[in-house]
Structure formats: C-alpha cells, structure tokens
Amino acid sequence: MKKKTAAIYILVILGSTFLGAFAGIVSAYLGSAPSLDQVNIRQNFTTYIYDIHGRLITDLYTENRIPVDINELPDHVKNAVIAIEDDQFYNHHGINFIAFGRAILVNLKEWSFAQGGGTITMQLARNVFLTQKKTIMRKLEEFLWAVQIERKYSKDEILEAYLNEFYLNHGIYGIEAGARAFFGKAAKDLSLAEAALIAGVIRWPTRY
C-alpha cells in the first residue's frame, strides 16, 4: 500500500511539474502565436449533380462534408457532442488545464499518449491547421492555435466550425454528412441517442 501511495505521489509531482512547465512555455510563446488573419480556412464541401427534374444523379467530393448552421441544430444534438468531447467547453478559454493535467498523469502511468486532454477548440486547431502527430511540439502548437481561435471567435462560432469539421471515417466529415450517412436524415432531426452515437464515433472513427 505504501509503495502504491508513493508511486501515485510521484506521478502527481511529475504531472504537476510538467503541467507547470508546459503552461510557462505556452505563456512565453503567446507573443509569437500564429495570426488567424493570415490563414485562409477552406473546407471541401460535397458537390451534388441533379438531372433536369431535380433528381440526384451523383455527388462529387474530396471530402463528404455538408455545412450546417449551428442555429439549425437542436440543443440536444450540440450538447451530446459537448458532453462527450469537452464538457467544460463553455467554461475555458481554449485549454482545459485540469483535463490536460489528468491526461498527463494517465500518460505517465501508461508510458504512452493514451489521452490527449484536448478541448473542442484544440481539436479544431489540430483538424484545420495542424497534423495528427502526437508530439510535444505539436501539442504546443495546438495550444497556441487554440488560444488564438478563442481570442477571435465566439464559442458558438467555434462549435459550429467543429461540428462541420470533425472526421467520422469513410471520408465523412461533420455532423450533417454524418447524420445522413448513419441515419439517412438531417442533423436537425437526430434523436438524442443518435446524436450521442455520432459523438462517440468522433473519438474512435476507425472503429466504425
């Protein structure tokens, strides 16, 4: 029992030290953070081809993505994604240091990148601006982008961008394309259970 307690204590100390150092690095680099004004955010939406009678012939896409306005989505659809991906979304400024610290402890214990501690804003930054690499430097870049995104956009704008951006496997991106692919209906018509299932796919897209 004493050995277990000592091990936990060491993990807490290491995690706290790492988190403090990481926060210091982020603060030091904020002055040189990337400018969103210099970035052109473009999304590849699906193109639909219809016959003269308005019947769908085919669709052309590099990414199957159908844009949706956040105001068209019922609260239970938005809340399902927030609950699974970032339950403190409206309470932080891009970085949830508590969740990140918890992820560090798990990663130190398992000696891997088992958890990322990423917020919705950080995931949006990764999806739009960065790569999917799991390195310390890439995580730092993710932090910087998340801070800048939160400075420029409202929470609803960030959530809308994320809902149109997340990946669901098989070339499907976003809540609207996902709703049509999984359930044959618009995202605004999803039930709570259906929205929760899609939110679960976001975390583990390769399993579906």
Record keyword descriptors for this entry.
single chain; 208 residues; mainly alpha; Penicillin binding protein transpeptidase fold; two-stranded parallel sheet; 6% strand
Describe this structure in words.
The protein has about 210 residues and is mainly α. The protein has a domain at about 65-95 and about 115-205: Biosynthetic peptidoglycan transglycosylase-like (Penicillin binding protein transpeptidase fold). Helix content is about 55%, strand content about 5%. It contains 8 helices and 4 strands. The strands form 2 sheets. Strands 1-2 form a two-stranded antiparallel sheet. Helix 1 (about 1-30) crosses helix 3 (about 95-110) and helix 4 (about 120-130) crosses helix 5. The protein is globular and about 65 Å long. The model has no long low-confidence stretch (mean pLDDT about 75).
Question: What is the strand and helix layout of this fold?
Answer:
Elements: H1 2-29, E1 47-50, E2 56-60, E3 64-65, H2 75-85, H3 97-110, H4 120-129, H5 136-152, H6 155-163, E4 172-173, H7 175-183, H8 192-203
Parallel strand pairs: 3-4
Antiparallel strand pairs: 1-2
CATH class of the domain at 65-95 and 114-207: Mainly Alpha
Helix content: 40-55%
Uncertain segments are: none
Structural class: mainly alpha
Describe the biggest sheet?
2 strands, antiparallel
For the biggest β-sheet, the strand order reads 1-2
CATH homology group of the domain at 65-95 and 114-207: Biosynthetic peptidoglycan transglycosylase-like
* Shape estimate: globular
The average pLDDT score comes to 75
Cα-atom radius of gyration: 19 Å
Assembly of the depicted chains: single chain
